[in-house]
Amino acid sequence: xxxxxxxxxxxxxxxxVAQQSLEAKISQHSQAHIKQRHWFKASSGPxxxxxxxxxxxxxxxxxxxxxxKQGSVRPSxxxxxxxxHQYRFNKPIGTDTKGQKAYALRVVTDKNNNVITxxxxx
Length: 122
Hints:
Order of helices and strands: HEHEHEEEEEE
Structural class: alpha+beta
Low-confidence stretches: 1-20
Mean pLDDT: 86
Number of domains: 1
Shape: globular
Number of strands: 8
């Protein structure tokens, strides 16, 4: 009798762990990079996308998690187990490299879903 419950518990615990690993984890280092390069009015030079003025780190964490959970994913061109996730939102989240409204978020993660960078794309 207990055998079935143990198997059920292990299966549920495994699903919980798998679900937890999909949460975006943005380190202080990555936050600094994102703010310096992609935050609203960041002076990061040409060919850089920027978030809307209303973006906060809390909101970015939320949309990055949604992007990782529900967006498309492919191996990153940088290798090293990195992945590129992308999700399109209904409202613009920033501007692309040409100053056009950007509706999608691109998140680059390492093999453990630690966020390396995140930025708006068209």
